[in-house]
Amino acid sequence: MAAGEIATVVNVRSPFTPHSVLLDITEEVESLKYGLTLNGADTGSFRVRRDSDLWQEWGDLLNAGILVSFERTDGRWPWVGWAARRRSTLGGGTVAFELKDHAGALYSRARTDWTQQPRLASVKVHLAEAFHATDRRANPPLMSTLVVASGGPLVDYATAGEYFLDVLEELADVAGFEWGLVYELSPTDAGVTLWISEKLGRDRRTEVVLEEGVHFEDGEYVQDALGFAGEAVAIGGTGEVRGRSASAKKPAGGQRAAFSSSPAASGSRVEVNPRIGNLAAVEGIAARLLTASDSTAESVGFELVESALKEEVRPGDYVTVRFRDVGLGAGLVRVVRVLGVQLEPSSGVVDCQVEVVVEYEQQQRPTG
To answer: Given 3-state DSSP classes, what are the helix, strand and coil percentages for the chain, each rounded to the nearest 5?
Structure first.
């Protein structure tokens, strides 16, 4: 490796705590890929040649079920995953490993307790109880720690032997929480924390400006009239509709003007949630409906040139994107939120999944 060149170290680790490094297989790995996503389980993959000397000495170790970490020499985008599948074909020259992170490999298979009756408590309490009860069952153990940074609304809830990942996704959606896995890696351990909060990531729109011709060479800008939502309405609680908590959100005037003149761009999004009666939580549901990717009229996409990035861009971050010319005869500037990054070290680019940020008007009570 040349001086200043960034490498991604691939370490095989003990599947049991502490997850100490057993073997560095960096030199034998090909076609390395992995991703980090907001509110979702992530995957990775790599290949090892069949004629590698690794198989003679370490063949018994390199099986499905091993724990593997990807660690860049610049400290950015660390990742840990379990080898969910190892595939070798007689006609192929390599052995392929497919990996899943803790959410995909453990949370999706570990079942919660059966509780007798729904209990009124904050989402934070329900999440913590479900996490620790599932971990105690150890079938399989979650092999991670939990941080819930927000309390969330009060809900009546009971677990019924579901997979923990299903409980996490359901309660996070109810509360409007976001979640992701945070890694702390050392030679002697691989710490994994499930971090849950009202909002993950940092607002870096004024400090991180990604520019065409500097940070990316190719990209796209899409307008979608049918994806535009002129209003999002959320209704919570039970009983007469007029007496329930309700909230309506509309795009801010500047973002609405370009699309509201066409009948093809009319329409609304509505969600009724009888389990949520708290007004603040209902307002949050309306905001999420309006700002969700499938409710917005604009989208952008691009691949970042890794060597041009001065700082790490992570899922949840807000950044500014500047196109010089996207075929419209003029430049375009948009604030976007990073939903995920996909890394393929050999390609030298970082594929970013983003959504255009929709600003909305202040809360109002829906009419009609």
So the answer is: 20, 40, 40
